[in-house]
Amino acid sequence: MTRWLAEWSFAGLFALAKEAVAVSEGSQALLSCDYEDGSFTTFRSPAFPSHSIRIKEQNDEVCDAGSKQYTGWLEFHGKHIFFWYFDSLNDPLTDPLTLWLTGGPGVSSLVGLMLELGPCRIKPGGNHTERNPYSWTRNSSMIFVDQPVGTGLSYVDSHMDIPTTSAIAAEDMYLFLQIFMTEVFPERRQTPFHIAGESYAGHYIPTLSREILRHNQVPETPAIPLRSILIGNGYVSPLDTLYGYYETLCTTKPGVDEPVFNQTRCQIISENLPRCISIYEVCYRYPDEVLCRAADAVCSVIKELYHNESHAGGRDPFDITRTCEVDHLCFLQTLEIQKYINKPSTWAALGVPEAVLNFSIESKEVASAFEATTDLYSNVMNDVKYTLEHEVDVLIYNGNLDLACNTAGNLRWANALRWNGQAPFTSEDLKPWYSSVGGSKVKAGTFKEVFTSVPKGDFGKQRFAFVTVDKSGHMVPLDQPEVALDLYQRWLFQKTF
């Protein structure tokens, strides 16, 4: 059965589903299958009777991927989570599975799929896609999920609320992964599982990792084989991100010829930073909504020096060397993806239900829901620590030209992380690493990593790595696709930098 599911023939799928439904009452069916309109197949399970997955096979018409691909929705309690799955181009039976989450909060993971590391890329004009030669599907199956619910093509019924915290989103995602691996792709429990993402996924990923690892300890609960997490330009610790503004804007360390800000503006940051950090530390200790909003207001004088000039034609917070192309997200391609997904032909191919009125690359509703809580002001360093303590490797990688989730801030919290590898990690200096770009060996950035022994661990060594990427901003796979693929493959296959 496992072998058959890995091959994913839908003719075989229907046959197996019918066989499962026909199992006698004295036996337990692994799944059941209901037919809807001939294009979707719905999976249900006795273990999760109120949850189902609707799934359909896609061809290369919408996304020129070159491998098997499937889209659908996990549906439960009035929530509907959209996903897009791709087989590895190499060996889907043995290659790992990687979940990709874009940040926001509320930005669709189709940004990662069609702009960065997915098997297809949006073409200029937003009418077609083309094959991505640097896709991360080269050696891994990939699944892109629009979450929290309300993001992208995910939606809630009218009586349901949108999630307001990373913890609530993690609960939903754990259920999604459990059903996906139990009912649809059970062979995935035999291959390593990785979670990757960027930006606000620096909150999502450690929180989801803790949720998975906590459930993995429950007896008789099918374990999700989480092997590592990868956080690119992540929003892990807001305080440290703010601390990194000075180095990013007032020095040449990001890889610029001259500092972005003049001496006057740098003096304003320098004078206001101590008070900003002090009150933010109080917010960390006592995560009260009013207190944390006050801390954010105190720190706004630092942020607004740059962000008040971030608009179309102005400064780009995601790459300090670029001009912002369009308001807010700054990348014109995000609007082209939005245009492409909203095409009637794309809508029909994906089978988008009538409840979804249109696709937006960013959900203002999700962003507002998170802003109404302390989630935006919290740090998730304890969840990173928990992940490391439970035998899961952690990679932090950063494009050096990003201000929004800057290298200096992320290195600061990585050094401050209190775990059994802190002493060797902080004592390490950043060293250059090299990659191949256009056939030539180039300095790709810097790195440091430690391997620590884990008592009774299954893998012998625990790995924590911090890697920087030169000439790259917020989206490393977009700015440096060859380097990003090299970085990803080295990590997957336990090779050093």
Automatic annotation (TrEMBL):
Keyword annotations: Carboxypeptidase, Glycoprotein, Hydrolase, Protease, Signal
EC number: 3.4.16.-
One Pfam family from the record: Peptidase_S10
Signal peptide from the UniProt entry: 1-22
Domain of life: Eukaryota
Gene3D superfamilies cross-referenced by the UniProt entry: 1.10.287.410, alpha/beta hydrolase
InterPro entries noted in UniProt: AB_hydrolase_fold, Peptidase_S10, Ser_caboxypep_ser_AS
GO molecular function annotations of the record: serine-type carboxypeptidase activity
UniProt GO cellular component terms: fungal-type vacuole
An individual GO BP term: proteolysis
Family stated for the protein in its record: Belongs to the peptidase S10 family.
Protein name per the record: Carboxypeptidase
Source species: Aspergillus felis
